[in-house]
Structure formats: C-alpha cells, structure tokens
Amino acid sequence: MTTGCLCLHGFTGSPWELEPLAERLRKKYRWLVYTPVLPGHNENENLKEVSYKTWIYKADLAARELFLHCDQVYVIGFSMGGMLASYIAARYPVAKVVLLGAAAQYIGAGQLMKDMAEMLESGIKGQMKKHPWYPIFYEKVHTPLHAVREFQKAVKAVTPFLKDVTVPVFIGQGVQDGLVPRRSAQFLYEKMTMPVKKLYFYEQSKHFLCHGANSEQVMEDVENFLIDDIPDGEIVWKSAY
To answer: Which residues form the AB hydrolase-1 domain (predicted)?
Structure first.
C-alpha cells in the first residue's frame, strides 16, 4: 500500500513550519510527503495579489494529486493550513487528519501582549532583532491588510465543513500560543462530532509546535496517532519538563 501525507502550512508561512515532522515521516516510513507552497507565499510572489480561493484551490489540487498516486492519504495542517486540512478531510476519503495550532479562531491577545513586552525589553537592551519572536512580529506587522482579510475569508469559508469531517482527528495546541488561542482548539474539538478525536495541549509551546519546547513530544504524538489503532477520544496536557 502506498501512503501519502499532505502537509499544509499557515498564513504568511512556508513548509518550514511543518518541515521537521514532514522529514521525520518521509525518512522513517518512506511515505510520499507533499508540502506545497500556497499562492502568494513564494519569495517572488505578493500576498496583495492573491485571493483566499486560490489557497483553498491549491490545497484541493494537492489532495487530488496525492490520491492519484497513493492508496491511503493523511492530511496535516498548521495554523491556517489546519483549516484547509479540515476542508480536505471533509471532501476526500483521507484516513486521518492532524490539526496543529489550527486557526479556527486567532490572536490570543493576553499571551501576545506578554510576548511583545518580552521582545520590547530585549529591544531596550539593544538585542530586539536577536529575539526569537522578532521575525514573527515583523512579518505580521508588515502583512498587507488585503491578505489579512483574505485569511479571515478563508477561515469563514471552510469552517462550515468541520461538521462533515468523519475521520479520526488529532488537534494539537500550544498553551502559550500568542497567535491562535486555546479556545480555537477547544472550538474544533467540540465542533467535530466524530467519535475518535484527540486534543493535546503542550504547556511550553507557542505557535510553532514543530519547532518549540515540546516539538519532540508533538512529533511523537502525531506519529503514533497516524500509525497506530486509535482508542476513543481524549484530552491530554503535556509538559516538556
């Protein structure tokens, strides 16, 4: 049996967001892992010129392409890519779906303010650009408003498909995520009505689950979810310490 895995990155992001997990699955299991770049996200492209419909279409096209070559397909989505993954899982006979920091809701203001305060403190010391959050804040601040509106439209367009997802789902959420709040993961868990679903909270993680303090736990949990038989749904809190 040929197994494929579609990995969908987030808004203003790139395949780097899921790269450690994608490489792990590719090397360990020899799966056909496809990590397409969404329209407007290549270096030579402009987010001002894209529509949310092109992101949905690209994800749909990628899924169709994988099903041409694979007998079994998994879908993994990060942030906005998690919402696109839910859409794919509702429309295609995927085996399982993984949602990491999925942006059903967004901007956890409390944690975001804490991160900004920490970054500003680094700036006072003359080291702002060395702060790990600096590239993220810089990127978000400079994102065209048109693209932000398209992102909101994308989330609104695919949310109704959540109720149509019937395959096992894994939802992973960073407790300290300043961009996608915990209530987003809880919303997804409640909205999806399939009997087999897992919700994992990672206590030390921020938004980038595959690169944070709990990254090894995240990847191990996702791997086990994909390759093992799954018991009934559960909610789990995990700590790196």
So the answer is: 6-114
